[in-house]
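Crash report, auto-generated. Payload:
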Amino acid sequence: MSERQQASRAPGTVGIIANPAAGKDVRRLVALASTFDNQEKVRIVRRALAGLTAMGVRRVYYLPDSFGIVTRAAENSRFDLELVPIPVACTFTASDSEQAASWLAAHGVACVITLGGDGTNRAVARGCRELPLVPIATGTNNVFPYLVDGTIAGLAAGLLAAGQLDETCLERRPCLEVWIDGTLVDIALIDVAVSRERFLGARAIWDPNTVQQVIVSRVIPGVIGLAAVAAALCPIPSPTGALVEFGTGSVCVTVPLAPGLVTTVPVRAWNMVSPGDEIVIEQRPCILALDGERELRIEDSHRVTVRLSASGPLVLDPRLAFSAAAKRGCFVMPLTSTM
Amino acid sequence: MEIPREKLRWIYERMVLIRAFEDRVAQEFAAGKLPGFVHLYAGEEAIAVGVCAHLTDRDYITSTHRGHGHCIAKGVDVKAMMAELFGKATGVCKGKGGSMHIADVDKGMLGANGIVGGGPPIACGAGLMAKTLGTDQVAVCFLGDGAAEQGTTHEAMNLAAIWKLPVVFVCENNLYAESTPWTYHCAAPDIASRAAAYDMPGVLVDGTDVFAVYEAAGEAIARARRGEGPTLLECRAFRYYGHFQGDAVSYRTPEEEAAYRQRDPIQRFRETVLSQGLLSEDELDAIDAAVQHEISEAVRFAESSPLPPPEDCLTDVYVSYPVEQLAFRH
Amino acid sequence: MVVTTRVLSYRQAINEALRLEMRRDPTVILMGEDVAGGATIKHIEQEGAWGGPLGVTKSLVSEFGRQRVLDTPISEAAFIGAAVGAAVTGLRPVAELMFVDFFGVCMDQIFNQGAKLRYMFGGKAKVPMVIRTMIGAGFGAAGQHSGCHYSVFAHMPGLKAVAPATPYDAKGLLIAAIRDDDPVMFFEHKMLYDMTGEVPEGDYVVPIGKADVKREGSDVTIVAISRMVHIALEAAKRLSGEGIEAEVVDLRSLSPLDEDAVLSSLAKTRRLVVVDEDNPRCSVAADIAALAVDKGFDYLDAPVKLVTAPHTPVPFSPSLERYYIPTPERVVAAVREIV
Ligand SMILES: Cc1ncc(C[n+]2csc(CCOP(=O)(O)OP(=O)(O)O)c2C)c(N)n1
Ligand SMILES: [Mg+2]
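Recovered output after restart:
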């Protein structure tokens, strides 16, 4: 029995993972990103809870965080909901999100609503296995999540939890696997950048001159970040990924590398990458940035490969969910005498 | 981000110097040799050092009651600091200020502060000087999470923003103000985001990672020098000792402390530079040894220095004033 | 009725006064930084909470709860001002200004608001509040944590000011202050907290505005405030060995001032020394001297002598601080000059 089927036996429960640190990194300083304040995340979760309760969800598991986003969201609101903290030992680092996601996946909830950007969703995706994500964009770079109101995300998640949606509303996203010496150590959802930086430092990447190459999981037009370079070179949205070598030689592209930061990036070469393809990372010294954040320091002796996988996380697309639900008449009720 | 080798050595040396200074002060205090209140900075070294790495003696900082680390990072002489804590005539403030008011204007260190929230307006003043005189100096204001609730802090951030002053506000969020957790004293415990209210960038930084602090602070300070105005950095870290020496720290759990000690800034620095082959183990150990020596020397110096003569109480109150009116009436 | 007395410390006496008044009157609330301690931290709710940095309000939160013992942010202007507002509208708040030196942060709320409201409102309002605050040198706490500064407050119309020197007076005066319908500044000397003395059980009041003769004598009157009462008593003991009998008048209240007590002692001894740890300019000590000259001129057989701190901030170094604080030797010397 698949985990999806298991989940459907326990209808009515949903998880929420809201990252209080999302939307506050150095790109407020080196670019023109907005600060995503946590009070706004509270309001988004509050609306998501409204959507969930409207669809009959009665229990929500949440990741306890230092800000108390979810508990604050439920304060002073008369939601008929049981809020249950996910039992993870909080370290207040990204690993909390990963642990929480794997707990949710193991405990048969229908889906997990996430609040954050690409980085937050990467952490959740590391732990969530086949558990679908309903990602609400509250990060700096938001290629992966939807720019969607909390109400809509809550309703969509609620529909899924209520068993009103089938698999056609779920989208399987690709991901990039990072293998070091034969072990899968991490994943990226959008892009892996090979950086000449020596330090993880303030994490974000905003200077194209420090980047040697970028591998994107999918070419998506209209995005911000390193993935925008691939989109600028390969105009057609394609199910394949791409490898872009930075450096003088071929062309320059003008891209938004961070919110408000439009730069010219010199490109030496680029190629399409298909699922299953592996790219060996030769650059040393080398830091790998995953979804725009410096994450892994690579030692000289390591053998590092990046592999494009077609089987990344499952995502619930709110638009597909709403049109499927409308087709089934989920929102329509007969007129009753009480009206 | 490139960090020259010499700078890396400096960063390490300053961090271990702060740690060793504070550990030694804790001992001396426990032995009853230091009067007054002592607030220790151990655990938060990466913040002061990562920030001050971008400053020269001509730049200014304002500090807090937990000011030893800021002093050391700003280059204040450790012997003179130790002597000050012992209340000796050779102290950097001639024994008049003590731990809570330690300062050295020659090094651009505008004082630890006994008043929570006392520093932010002063930093604006230093920034205003730089702007008025057209210099490229900057002022960095260190403040605690508790100080973020003080009216002066808000007024200063607004002032710095409307006048585009070269000021960087560095909020050292160590999760507590005395025994009060920041999640209680802060209505929306999210200090970085307050910057939005004052139209300045607000950035959340891992204050236990000196490289993260170094890079973010470097950007903020460069922005200030370019005349683009103030920034607020919220650096999260943890203080290893109690609020002051003598605090039994009943409000924190051992698990919480253990979790934070896992992220020790000095340990993290060592791991990074060693794994990158940037500095060698021998080199780091040699710095450790030199620092221990420096601290011992500082204590020796402090202990063997004389107390100030009592009448020194009457000096330095004013630049000029009738002396007979300073002394006692009878 | 038999009144039992026991030996309590000054700290315990203050704690007991607060406890009794809070039991008696539900409108009495406490607020200040860490007056309960560890707000929201479950494991120390009953024990282990600070009760102020020097433990003066310890365990009051266990009896009265956090509704009535409020930890505040470090926002003196806001919470002292809130005490004013609460007092005008029906509570009897006791706010703690941790060290008197911090008055600069919140002075407007104290002197423009709390002190003047009643007058400006034509007597239609009252402001029954107490500000407890720590004063005094001797701890090595240096320039911003060691001042007395009560003269500043005694100077201001609308405020009352008291400064007990013994556990007995501390309890009785604090009860009186809480019951008083005007704003009262209550000055606690940090070097007296561990001092012990006989304190009756149950409630009793030491009236505000009444000085106390702590030692009778015929040759000279020594008027002293707070910790200086003990310095004066020590000096009196030494003088007695020389055949000079000093009368020590503990002022207790700085505003209103017990003029009769000072003048009647002066009438008896015809000589006056004032011992005050506050800075001398425009001070309570200077005010007493003015009183003696103004209303007691005919009693005076010698010039009035002031033994005070110098006109400097409080220095840190022990050698300097010892110089700063008036000593029995200096009191003895002053007496010798005029007897
Ligand atoms: C105006 C003022 N109010 C209160 C105090 C007492 N006090 C000293 S330190 C402190 C807590 C400060 O907390 P935070 O700003 O977070 O700094 P940290 O001690 O954590 O470094 C308080 C309340 C003070 N010194 N000044
Ligand atoms: Mg703090």
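Post-recovery validation: Chain C has a mean pLDDT of 97.
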